[in-house]
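Listing S7. Sequence submitted for prediction.
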Amino acid sequence: MARLNLLNLNFGPRTHQGAPARNISTELQLRRSVLACLLWESQFYEDGVEIAGRIAELVTKVSAEKVAALAVEAREKMKLRHAPLLLVREMARHATHRRLVAETLARVIQRADELAEFVAIYWKDGRVPLSAQVKKGLAAAFPKFDAYALAKYDRGGPIKLRDVLFLAHAKPRDEAQAEVWKRLIAGELTAPDTWEVALSSGANKREAWERLLREEKLGALALLRNLRNMRDVGVNEDLVLTALGSMSTSRVLPFRFLAAARYAPQWEEALEQAMLKCVAGAEKLRGDALPGKTIVLVDVSGSMTASLSQRSEMQRTDAAYGLAVLLREIGEKVVVFSFSDKLVEVPARRGFALRDAIDASQPHSSTMLGNAVAELNQKQAYDRLIVITDEQAHDTVPGPKGKGYVINVASYKNGVGYGKWTHIDGWSESVVEYIRELERTA
């Protein structure tokens, strides 16, 4: 006789730490795998190759239109470079998706070096002929770039820009562009005066940096990324401070300044001033659109201290703390908490002081997100709860008491931020705009 009174061990999906995860559609699975993905970079719980393989597998299960839209979103809104190229490469493998390859590829290629990088991804598993749609997309993208851009990114890798030009059979717009392409093929384009060229030319590094600073030839991101290099070669401090004070910060997120301050702490005051300038112009989340109290709950568990990439000192905590700083500045009434083993309220600080307070609030240990949300639901009145996390947890996560948002800063297969939560992948400035617009139109 069959026994029915048996324990059901089919628990469904789980996070890497064992908490129940949500069953989500293949489209949402693809989104969460892509929008916080630095391609082929291993994360705390998952290998980068595994993530890339999952993306490839999911492409066939999502409609061509949605995959194409996701590739464009990843490039244009989340500022990712390689993940969108992988999506298009996988589209090119399948007859159901090929018709949108040319249009999508031409749109997601926004830097000249991405022409060669796409071909490298296409040939990653072996050199095969480029499909007609791929050639069409590369041919449409190539004329976007002028002599400066082509010279800047005409690098010495195994696949050169002239190789892509030959493969795609691109047609120049006019005689002037045809002449530029002839010089590209002949290797006669003049190298532009960029920091990469200046530093690789054999010139004295301190003198090269100081000249670039005086001539204002460093963009904001290049300046922030190279502060340690300038420090190491003894660049004049007044030049660095002047550059930080005058840099354009309109498209720089706070986490960039937080990361820069980790390896160039002597310039932290100037970095903080530049960061606050960055968020000062942001529209306040006030009035009818987002009334009331916002709680920002920041994950400080051990997995959040992992580096974003092998060559970067930037950590997931930089992304999380940076978003907390941004929300603290532009919110009407914002209270910040951290969670790991327990829930801790963070002092009402701003700027780098808020970063320090979050980081020191408790040990970076386990991920008791469920307990943290339950305690907030019991003890705090709030209109919205914004959780910034890699979506791993040791316990079951209840729904929010008010509006609830989970900002996911990782690409793990399973996560907890679904159901009654509004789920947002990635950590660009778009996540704040998304919340603002969602509540405006609700």
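Caption to Listing S7: primary sequence and predicted structure tokens for the chain studied. The beta strands are 293-299, 333-339, 343-345, 384-389, 403-408, 422-425. Residues 204-280 form one domain.
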